[in-house]
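Worked example

This section walks through a single chain of length 161. The input is the sequence exactly as stored; nothing has been trimmed or padded.
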Amino acid sequence: MEAACRAKAEGIISKRVDARYVSGDRGLWRKTKCYEREEFIIVGYSEPEGSRPYLGALLLAYYDNGGQLVYAGRVGTGMSAAELRRLHQMLQPLRVKTPPLDVLRPRTTRFGSPLNLSRVTWVRPKLVCEVRFLTWTADGLLRQVAYEGLRADKPAEDVRR
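Given that input, the structure is written out below as tokens.
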């Protein structure tokens, strides 16, 4: 597993050692993923849907080597109702009318549902969070992202890909 992750593979597929090979998934196969962790700047949030309270997903960005703020994707999993409430309260004073991004998201991507910009609340790029993710897409977006927590110890200006 460590070698697969070092080689930047998405993970490994394994089979129970006491089961003989049979095609198809009969509960014998396991997928173990190589997750990465990184910090990102929160630049906005989407409206909640269904029974979810406070906010939908956090919109994430990072500074590139030229100092431009680049959209990296969004994260909507890994947050309890209490954390959603806390984040929502922290983001309210940071609200702005226009996107703080220098490089917007790609118009089309094959990963994830489309982002409805009319349902996004933009915020000043001040809060940093840490996420776990599987990989980057070819068009520069995060895949399979989960929220791990805020990083009060890291200034937004220091967040680089």
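What to look for: The chain has a mean pLDDT of 88.
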